[in-house]
Specification:
Blueprint lengths: L1 E7 L10 E3 H13 L18 E4 L3 H10 L6 E2 L16 E3 H13 L9 H18 L5 E6 L1 H13 L3 E4 L7 E6 L1
Parallel strand pairs: 1-6, 3-4, 3-6
Antiparallel strand pairs: 1-8, 2-5, 7-8
Protein name: Phosphoglycerate mutase
InterPro entries: His_PPase_superfam
């Protein structure tokens, strides 16, 4: 049996939810992408990393999460595992930061462009990663990846299309999603 385990990063220190306008929301996104982990953010449970091929997103919060989790050796930094961009548009609103994320992602899903990766390109990137991981699992039967919520969501969907079966699913900060394939 082969196994892929997706571990979402811990809560970033900058993941506050204050009201911001469009300019401040763009700053919020930049700070979120550079943020250290919130010192109070701890894994609710830990997956054993022994005998695992460990991959990590190139984004800081994923690398910090892997280190905090106890990953002493990273086998591969996977560029395609980076988070799907958090888009930002200059709209005339003041909203809570996470409401901006929801509205901006909805516009992004609908094809609205900006100075960030297009949604269709992000999905193709994650689908490419799923194919790579399926192939890698032939040599490395247990893969643990430290990454991001939206990227994990679409990666999970792509792996299921390749006959992987979800046995555990948690998309929260530090959440673990486990997939298996015979």
């Amino acid at each position: 049996m082969k196994e892929i385990i997706l571990v979402r990063h811990g809560k970033p220190a900058s993941a506050h939810n204050q009201k911001v306008n469009a300019v401040d929301y763009a700053k919020w996104v930049r700070n979120y992408n550079k943020s250290e982990l919130d010192p109070n953010s701890q894994p609710r449970k830990k997956v054993c990393l022994e005998n695992s091929y460990i991959g990590v997103s190139p984004l800081h919060r994923a690398k910090c999460s892997a280190a905090h989790y106890g990953a002493s050796h990273i086998h591969e930094e996977l560029a395609d595992l980076r988070e799907m961009d958090i888009p930002y548009y200059h709209l005339p609103f003041t909203l809570k930061a996470w409401h901006w994320v929801v509205i901006s992602r909805a516009l992004w899903f609908l094809g609205r462009k900006g100075r960030f990766e297009r949604f269709t390109d992000a999905k193709q990137r994650v689908e490419r990663l799923a194919v790579y991981l399926d192939t890698l699992s032939k040599q490395e039967p247990r893969i643990v990846l430290f990454g991001h919520g939206m990227a994990h969501y679409f990666l999970r969907k792509s792996l299921v299309k390749q006959k992987w079966r979800i046995t555990e699913k948690d998309g929260e900060f530090w959440g673990v999603t486990r997939l298996e394939k015979m």
